[in-house]
Inverse folding.
């Protein structure tokens, strides 16, 4: 299967497939004598795995680690859980940060009359480090 077919079958763009090969996230594929990449069903499984992990916000480093754990049949599920828990903790922290940002902006917007006057609580709040 060529790169275009692999991209279509996996849902990962050809550009990203090349990038993943370049950074070592997936192994370099076999090439035909004409230099075309050839992908196997295992390559497709790996690409789908990567796409799934990316959709959950895992970093490329985490995905590399997850791939190695996925391929290691002797792995301890505790290792996988620890990595996922670390990611979950980071997501929860980011959610808290975003919630606080939203609440601050919501408060500023609520106090702004939104009229033709130059006095603006949003600008004043930002100037005061709100």
């Amino acid at each position: 299967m060529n790169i275009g077919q692999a991209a279509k079958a996996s849902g990962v763009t050809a550009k990203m497939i090349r990038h993943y090969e370049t950074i070592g996230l997936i192994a370099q594929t076999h090439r035909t004598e004409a230099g075309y990449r050839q992908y196997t069903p295992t390559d497709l499984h790996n690409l789908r795995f990567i796409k799934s992990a990316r959709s959950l916000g895992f970093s490329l480093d985490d995905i590399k680690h997850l791939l190695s754990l996925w391929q290691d049949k002797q792995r301890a599920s505790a290792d996988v859980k620890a990595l996922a828990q670390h990611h979950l903790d980071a997501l929860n922290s980011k959610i808290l940060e975003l919630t606080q940002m939203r609440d601050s902006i919501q408060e500023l917007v609520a106090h702004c009359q939104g009229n033709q006057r130059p006095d603006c609580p949003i600008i004043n709040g930002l100037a005061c480090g709100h």
